[in-house]
Every structure is written in structure tokens, then in C-alpha cells.
Specification:
Elements (H helix, E strand, L loop, with lengths): L1 H6 L1 H9 L12 H25 L5 H14 L10 H18 L6 H9 L4 H7 L4 H28 L5
Helix pairs in contact: 4-6, 6-8
Amino acid sequence: MLCSAIKYHTVIDAMTANKSLKLWKFKLEMEEWAIAKDLVAVLLQYKNVTLFFSQDSASVATVIPVMDWIMSNLHYQMGKVYHPSLAVAMILAHKEMDHYYSFTNTSTIYHITMVLHPGMKLEYFCNQKWTGKWIEEAECLVQEEYVVKYEKVADESNMTPMRI
């Protein structure tokens, strides 16, 4: 709806300026139209990310890179000066996303998936400049998971006598 309003803002301005229609109290100033345009641009980015996560092809291994992209690119300080109201809304959205994104730190699944993913490995975290402590922790989690769940099974399968 906001996209349509922006598209037809000249017509809307003409309608709200018409005294006989008694809509003048709804007339938007140029600054308000600019805020609306910025809002549409920001919301479209959030929409595209939401659609990405709604796909069947979204996987655990794609969550962290996409969230890293979101956290670094959909930020109110990324080069464009936004109206304070829009900047505050973006701060709140960023805070909310960060809240849910932080849950990946408590999930061994995310750590292990990223470390074992052929295109990610620990190199991904180094490239993203994650802390050395976090990278070491992720590596240890993979090693611990292997020892607890797979090492014994692997050893037992090697000890099973082969039948000829």
C-alpha cells in the first residue's frame, strides 16, 4: 500500500490540497514522503530476507551467513542518514533480530553445521572476524560431539571381524 501511495504521491498531494474534499489534514510534506520512500526501501530488504528463510532450500548452514549479512547491512548507520523515527525503528528491529540470532550461540547444531559445511569451515568465522574464543569453542564442540557420539562406534566397527 505504501508503494502505491509513493507511486501516486502527486495525485494524492493534489487530492489532499483540494479544499472541497476536506482532506488537507492528511497532506504529507516532502520530508514525510522521503521518510515513506526510505521506509519502503528498508522494508523491502527485510521482506526479501524473510522470503529467503521461508524457502524450502533454507538450511541450518545458511542461517548464520544470512544473519551476518542482515546484521551488517540492514543497519541504520550504513551510510544513509535516515529520519530519526526510521532510525529508531531499525534499531529496535536490529535488537529483536539480535535477540533471536543469539540463540545460535547456545545451539551446538549451528556450530557443528558451520564447521563441517564444506564451503564454510572455520575459515568462514575467521573471514567474518569472529572472536578467536568463539572459533575455538566451535572447533571443540565438533571434536566433543565426535568423541561422545561417533568415536566409539567407529572403533567398534573397525574391531568387528570380517567374514569371508
